[in-house]
């Protein structure tokens, strides 16, 4: 007898926005806040072409993709899979891609393996590059270390120099930790003076193997708000485009009813090196729990993406995610701006998808909205004072 039989018909699924492909689980770094286990990061080998082929045949035989989506090669150091892997994979995907659907490829990389050959490949295929960099050396090297414990800042800088000299635009993504809040100005100065096509940041999350974020500290929220206030004002003054600030401004200036994209199945699909797949939040693929079991809901070789909703574990997770959104709706003043948050953070922090507030949403949603709304209001007040004074 099935334990969880919640759905008689498929829920709304997709359209696919992000397909995360783990070309290799291997990573040459050992960043202290990584949510992956040591064992997972030590996996040698790479995804087979059969898995690549079946993923795209499965997708294009389904109703899940619409006219475009992005393939992010990630969850390990993607460049460790090597150029010959991507040459074959990209050609194969291009052969399988129907005319109605555009695909863009993206690497989320630590940059340490980027050389001239990679630059040539990136240009040839117009791949977007997201580089992980946590700010200046003293911050970056605290957490972004290799397997012998050495800081990786110099390698990230070399990669940036090479990308720039090849005219390849790239975005930076930083992880904000307690060390950033302890001394925020070097971080802020770094990202408001260096040139990136976009600058983005995340916070150190309590997730997976990283069982406690350093941001779960005394006065964490208060200090985070101070950091955001200073960074936001300096970014505005310097014309720096920070992804999170722009998204928050859009939320404030153009209020529409929001849904949490990670609560809709198959808008994000995560495919592991062996073809196992998951959905909702990217981090779930590598996690499991006593309550929910595995978050692997199928394998591309034998299970159709369209049929994911028939998987018993999927049904349990889906039902709890929807229940968690209802709790958010009832209890949170920010619901209209948020739509119900990220399932993986609810699971990692609260032990259940059927829950509401997390440190992740408190900092990145509530605190950030509050600070930026205040800054926008202060700017409007200053402008109206100038108009009245004329
Ligand atoms: S801010 Fe947090 S508590 Fe509020 S709706 Fe979003 S996830 Fe739920």
Structural summary, described in words:
The structure is a single chain. Helices cover 43% and strands 12% of the residues. The chain is of the alpha/beta class and 390 residues long. A 9-stranded mixed β-sheet has the order 6-5-4-3-2-1-7-8-11. The radius of gyration is 21 Å and the shape is globular. Bound molecules: iron/sulfur cluster. Residues 328, 332, 334-335, 338, 340-341, 356-357, 361, 365-366 line the site of iron/sulfur cluster.
Strands, helices and their partners?
Elements: E1 18-21, H1 38-42, H2 49-60, E2 68-73, H3 83-96, E3 102-109, H4 116-125, E4 128-132, H5 137-143, H6 153-165, E5 171-176, H7 178-182, H8 184-193, E6 199-203, H9 220-238, H10 243-253, E7 268-271, E8 276-279, E9 288-289, E10 293-294, E11 298-299, H11 312-331, H12 335-338, H13 343-350, H14 359-389
Parallel strand pairs: 1-2, 1-7, 2-3, 3-4, 4-5, 5-6
Antiparallel strand pairs: 7-8, 8-11, 9-10
Helix pairs in contact: 2-3, 8-9, 9-14, 10-14
The structure holds iron/sulfur cluster.
Residues 328, 332, 334-335, 338, 340-341, 356-357, 361, 365-366 line the site of iron/sulfur cluster.
Task: Sum up the structure in keywords.
390 residues, globular, binds iron/sulfur cluster
Question: Short summary of the structure?
Answer:
Helix content is 43%, strand content 12%.
